[in-house]
Design goal:
The complex is a heterotrimer of chains A (263), B (279) and C (353). Chain A is an all-alpha fold and 263 residues long. Chain A is 78% helix and 0% strand. Chain A is built from 10 helices and no strands. Chain A is flat, with a radius of gyration of 23 Å. Chain C has 2 domains: 13-124 and 228-352, D-Maltodextrin-Binding Protein, domain 2 (3-Layer(aba) Sandwich), CATH 3.40.190; 126-223, 3-Layer(aba) Sandwich (D-Maltodextrin-Binding Protein, domain 2). The radius of gyration of chain C is 21 Å and the shape is globular. Classes of the chains: A mainly alpha (263), B mainly alpha (279), C alpha/beta (353).
């Protein structure tokens, strides 16, 4: 979608992306093969590839990389879906009803900026080591983001539209279902994309208490011994999957919310 | 029972002096918020008073309060609470400000121009889901253990959020408005300045709020390694010696500061972006 | 003072004031004041990474001896693991690493991180060991099958635990090994989520107090070659540029060690204050470590004299080999690399001083 006067054609933009990526890759290859940067700091493509193959074949610490990836994905999805769902519902409620907002706002506002690492140990106290504590952490990470996005979405609905609907005799529920909710959907989806981003960002913190599974944990553990090759493979993996999830959400949004930007 | 249209009772209610209704509503609401917080404190007290959780792992409100006074008076291991709070805020602020200063312009550019987006967006989107803890080690390797690596971590965490929000903000501009402005003969630049930018501001501010909250939660992660001050350092240091009372104090202070920061951005948002929800 | 012969450029007016005040303070404190800092070049500051722990290192830190003897201001960075010290050293962000474990040190030397081993803080021995839950009914190594054991990965405890599994024919398929930091271990322990832990105090003593039973493994493991120690490392470039500061630093630690051996109660009191524990806890924790004296460190049993590396290089080598098997590091160099990385010239000078 272009807002400039003369937008570029898709083929040209694809070429630009390709060129940009190529420049980055060349810089990376140059820096590492010319020895400008030590292997420890930035492993070269050869090392990365070898590390990747190694992880594929032999896994990491007695578990295949797919196992680790599976664990991580499970946690992310469980935390994100539950947190976003509950958060969105809560946020819609908060946006519509001031009383609900008054009750929950202090809790949501308190939790949202709260660094997860700070209360990680407390979660173990209550939920033990294992999946529950981690998923609870991710749930608590996603919830405030979704809640606030949904609340904002409701608040941003054009007042005129509500008044118009009200003057046409719509009930509060009808106003919500047909005016407020659809209007807010765009922000809800933005909130969902932000939520999954934040959940992802917290994945490693959560996997600190995982015991010994997960890609996030693998990165942390490899980082301890400065195995930058494993760390980079892990980061790339997480980045690509994260990108994929984000694109997926975008796709869903475009299918569902085809009216954004139009009046 | 309600006929089509608005009943007379409803009309009367609507006509009641706005001020009076608002005052009553606000009074109720504040009370609700306070009660909500008190309920949480009560649960905490009950849980510890009845030893539902071992004392050593979750100290009660009384013990925490005493420790708090002690921390205020004597500091934590030769650092005062103010010092730690200031250090954490400085890192968070620096990273956030840098991220906004660079992220907003880039996001706007990406939203506006397909070319810029093609060149940069894939990097921004790739950065977004990256867990800060995953590359903290790399940043420390490259930039050392001082504040630089920590601020860079926060910058890299906040930047993609702000840039993405700015981009989304540009896209949320109603096509019709742009088209009508264009048909009125406005130049691209004027359209950008007077139609797109104001339209994007609400989303930019939402993004900034989220970025600030994220930067704030990341600053604690940044203080996980080789820090000598900061609220995050205080919490981790305390956890190494199982001083859960200090941990809880740290958590509460962090939460309160986070909320205050958020309110600040909200204030700025409300005063600058007064056209939310208005056509 | 002002008429002392000074090397050109090394000590200016600021340095003179520093020397004057430090000498005055040292005289007052009754400690031997070596003019170590007047003889050689002094750095502007020394960046030291340290642990907050119950060890005599805290004495030298708390009393300011490190700064006095090194002759420079010290920038202290608290770390939580040897891995952080390695990272900081690789980033050239610190000059001295205090009490880094032998496991991370072996890794660091193998990865050619530019530091040297200049001294030992302690031979860990029984200070890090296994604690099992009384209710888990673990009486012999075979009983660990199917159990959950927690340890902080990458630490000397982790190294020992893996050694324990290996020497008893157990694999990580038989025993679930979990990566948990000491505070997380205590939390998991009180919930009954783990059956055993291999770790150090304060977590170890907390677990012993809460339904735990000691399961000693250190003697057998030490004999089998799984010796673990806490070491002092210094950035090679730094120690080449400022040998006197490094010597002074070690000398300060030597004084602390002497104080611990001759006046244990006073020592415990100071350590307790620095570590935020009671003097009793400090005393009890310190008693478990073997704080190797400088003379023993210089003997062939440990680090060896300058130019005559001792057995410890072999300990580091086998540690590194083990880490390679674990895939923690890519490759381990020959024992010569570890011998070369051990530089006890400063230790010798400090011991004679």
């Amino acid at each position: 979608m272009a807002l400039e006067g003369t937008p570029l054609r898709p083929r040209v933009t694809a070429a630009i992306t390709g060129a940009s990526l190529l420049v980055l890759l060349l810089a990376w290859i140059a820096a590492t093969s010319l020895g400008l940067v030590d292997d420890l700091f930035l492993p070269g493509p050869g090392l990365l590839w070898a590390g990747f193959l190694d992880l594929l074949e032999n896994g990491y610490r007695n578990r295949s990389i797919w196992e680790h990836a599976g664990w991580s994905l499970e946690r992310v999805l469980a935390g994100f879906l539950t947190g976003s769902l509950v958060g969105t519902l809560l946020g819609l409620g908060m946006g519509v009803n001031r009383k609900i907002e008054a009750i929950f706002s202090p809790l949501v506002e308190f939790f949202r900026p709260l660094p997860q690492l700070a209360y990680l140990v407390l979660l173990i106290v209550w939920f033990g080591i294992g999946e529950t504590a981690q998923i609870v952490l991710l749930f608590l990470t996603a919830l405030p983001v979704s809640a606030i996005a949904a609340m904002d979405g409701v608040r941003n609905v054009s007042v005129q539209r509500i008044q118009a609907a009200r003057s046409l005799g719509a009930t509060e529920w009808q106003i919500f279902r047909y005016v407020v909710f659809p209007s807010a959907l765009h922000e809800i989806f933005t909130g969902a994309r932000l939520a999954i981003g934040v959940v992802y960002a917290t994945l490693i913190a959560a996997e600190i208490i995982s015991g010994s599974t997960g890609i996030g944990w693998m990165i942390l553990d490899a980082g301890r011994f400065l195995r930058s090759d494993y760390v980079f493979v892990g980061i790339l993996f997480i980045g690509i999957v994260g990108l994929g999830l984000d694109r997926l959400l975008l796709l869903v949004e475009h299918r569902v919310v085809h009216w954004s930007g139009k009046d | 029972m309600e006929a089509e249209g608005i009943s007379t009772e409803r009309q009367a209610k609507l006509a009641a002096p706005l001020a009076r209704r608002l005052a009553r509503a606000v009074g109720d609401l504040r009370l609700l918020s306070v009660l909500s917080v008190l309920a949480v404190l009560a649960i905490w007290y009950v849980v510890t008073a009845f030893a539902l959780v071992p004392e050593v792992l979750l100290p009660g409100p009384g013990e925490v309060a005493t420790s708090f006074v002690d921390l205020l008076l004597h500091g934590y291991r030769e650092t005062t609470l103010w010092q730690n709070a200031a250090a954490t805020l400085w890192r968070c602020g620096a990273g956030f400000v840098l991220a906004c200063a660079t992220g907003v312009p880039l996001g706007l550019a990406m939203g506006y121009s397909n070319g810029v987006r093609a060149a940069c967006n894939y990097i921004v989107q790739f950065m977004r889901p990256l867990p800060p803890l995953s590359y903290l080690i790399l940043l420390i390797l490259w930039l050392g253990i001082g504040d630089t690596s920590k601020i860079m971590l926060l910058y890299l965490t906040a930047f993609p959020i702000v840039a993405s929000s700015a981009m989304a903000g540009v896209w949320s501009t109603k096509l019709q408005r742009i088209q009508s402005a264009r048909s009125l003969g406005a130049s691209d630049w004027r359209i950008f300045l007077h139609v797109i930018l104001p339209s994007a501001l609400p989303m930019i501010f939402t993004g900034a709020r989220i970025a600030l909250a994220t930067a704030f939660s990341t600053v604690v992660a940044a203080e996980l390694m080789a820090a000598t001050d900061g609220l995050g350092w205080m919490v981790f240091s305390a956890s190494r010696f199982l001083r859960n009372d200090v941990i809880i104090i740290g958590i509460i202070i962090l939460g309160v500061i986070g909320m205050a920061l958020n309110k600040l951005v909200l204030l700025v948002d409300r005063s600058l972006v007064h056209w939310r929800g208005v056509e | 003072m002002a008429s002392e012969q000074v090397p050109s450029g090394a000590i200016n007016r600021r340095g003179f004031m520093k020397i004057a005040t430090l000498s005055g303070a040292a005289l007052v404190s009754g400690l031997p004041t070596r003019s170590l800092f007047a003889a050689g070049k002094a750095p502007d500051s020394v960046r030291v990474a340290f642990f907050v722990e119950t060890k005599p290192t805290m004495i030298a830190k708390g009393q300011g001896w490190f700064e006095q003897m090194a002759g420079a201001k010290i920038g202290w960075s608290e770390v939580g693991s040897g891995a952080e010290i390695n990272t900081a050293m690789a980033a050239q962000s610190i000059d001295i690493g205090l009490a880094i474990g032998s496991s991370p040190t072996a890794a660091g030397i193998s990865q050619r991180i530019p530091y040297q081993l200049i001294g030992m803080v302690d031979n860990i021995g029984p200070a890090e060991d296994m604690v099992v839950r009384a209710a888990a009914n673990i009486k012999s190594p075979a009983d660990f099958k199917g159990k959950k054991v927690a340890t902080p990965f990458g630490s000397t405890s982790h190294f020992r635990l893996l050694g324990f599994l290996k020497t008893n024919g157990l694999t990580e398929k038989d025993v679930t090994v979990l990566d948990l930091k000491p505070d997380a271990e205590v939390a998991a322990w009180t919930r009954g989520d783990i059956d055993a832990a291999y770790v150090w105090s304060p977590a170890k003593s907390k677990m012993l107090e809460a339904g735990g039973v000691a399961f000693p493994t250190s003697q057998k493991l030490d004999a089998a070659g799984y010796v673990i120690a806490d070491l002092i490392v210094a950035r090679t470039a730094f120690s080449e540029a400022y040998p006197d500061a490094v010597t002074g630093f070690l000398h300060a630690y030597g004084n602390a060690l002497t104080m611990y051996k001759t006046k244990p109660d006073d020592a415990a009191a100071i350590v307790a204050k620095e570590a935020g524990v009671t003097p009793d806890v400090a005393k009890r924790d310190m008693a478990e470590y073997d704080f190797v004296t400088f003379e023993r460190q210089l003997s062939p049993d440990w680090l060896g004299a300058p130019g005559k590396p001792g057995k410890f290089a072999h300990v580091l080598k086998s540690t590194a080999d083990f880490l390679v098997v674990q895939k923690s590091i890519r490759e381990a160099p020959g024992v010569e690399a570890f011998e070369k990385a051990t530089n006890t010239t400063f230790l010798q000078r400090a011991a004679k001083a």
